[in-house]
What we know:
By secondary structure, this protein is mostly helical. It has 12 helices and no strands.
Amino acid sequence: MASTECPVLTGPENFQIWHIRILAKLRVEKVADVILAKGKEEDEGADDPDTTVVPYYRESWATRDSKAHGILITHLSDRLSLQVANLPSALEVYNKILEIHQKTNVGVSAFYTFVGMMNLKWDGDISTIQDHIASISAADAKLTAMKKGVDSEWLAFILLQSLPNTTVWETFKTSVLHSMPTDSKLSFSELSNRLTFEAARIQGSTEASESALKAKAAKPSSKPRSDKWWQGAAEEGKGQGSEKG
């Protein structure tokens, strides 16, 4: 399942998602204003006893800046942390990180994103199929944002090759590819729907089989009497007949 936590920034390959998540985290902690240059004037004016401005923040600018600085540093790799270690304010750290990565060739980020998407593999756990499809879709959205989007048919092929190499899923791949009309293309959305339906069908079939096995195991068995039992009964009958005679 995809994580919603802010990742540690390691380089161009995860800069975009880091940028989105770090801003969200700073907003949650109510310190995003120190890097977005909002509220400093009002905050400083609130310290003046002669002003009538009511402070919007309870913590001082310096306190919030220190907190934001710490959040930024703890979400950077060791290599990047060393590059910004001497910068005293959160805004300076933030701007330096942007400078480093905005100078990076978009092709580098696109390359790592594409490689990551190609390396995605589904383990066959039916409960995670939606998350797996969403991961590929998210990678494509990232590439599209860099104007490097993947064609829908090729995206469908990537999803197909990410399926397990088991008999069930190899059969599914063959079925999908051979059912395509000659003059049409397979789309990612179409394949996603078929894959979700097939996963649900397999899950339903598995659950039905398990229920049948449990019911069979719970049913009391009526074993036929063995030949030895009949022989014993016959011998006993003969013995009783002899006694009467």
